[in-house]
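Chain A, query sequence.
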Amino acid sequence: MTYMDRVFGQAAKLPHLPDVVMELERLTRADGVDDRLLARTVAKEPGVAAKVLRLANSSLYFRRGTVSSLEEAVRIVGISDFRTMVLASCAVAAFPKISKFDLKRHWTHAITTGNIARLSAGHAGTEHEDAFTAGLLHTVGVLLLHVTVPEEAQAIDQQVPAQDFIGRVSAEREAFGFDHAEVGAELLRRWKIPEVICNAVRTFADTDQRSPILPTAVRLGSSLATLSAQGLIAGPLLEAADSELLERLRIDLPWFGRKLQTALDSVDDVVSALTSS
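Chain A, predicted structure.
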């Protein structure tokens, strides 16, 4: 039995998303969707609804305590962002606890990645909420490996620097014959996440000049998130950024520098909104 068989052969350990995610995906892709219907759909899951409201009032959307209902949240942030908030809430809740693993630190990296990917992909003309989702979920495969093959995953933890998920890929390939990006992409496909996001998660660590904007933005976000975890702020982060990635994303450095600190400043607020019970 291969490691991949071991990971996905343990049906009882595989995390699932609630039905509200698929229902919302169906509703929001239709024409003329009713805000009240979207709100009622999410309200069926009180825990999800509470996190969505916290997100709508977070600094991710530059708000503090002004959105009081789900229907209002749809109107203010828009259908695409609302769908993203529901998916983010459910994805984080799918991994409530992992033994010997710092989930808060993990989600801090993931949300930092998502914020930076959202910023850079939006500037390059790609759907910014897809970029945030791909960034948020780009390391979900690491979580699944810790759930299904914990001893081996913890051994990889000892081999690579903390939060260096790009560097982690090569260690996983040597140990398993595959990496967390492949595992994460497969999990997202089983969750019925759009293929463009699955592909970005699968390929973010191996981007080149031919790669689409989305995985390139996720790679930039992940690399800067790793440096951010070491205490670097926007200015030094920008100096340390991979110039080739910035060029591929056609990023205007003065603009990016001004926006980057704002993206970093919202991370703790979003982590709190998503991880609070």
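The chain is about 70% helix and 0% strand. Residues 103-123 form the longest helix (21 residues).
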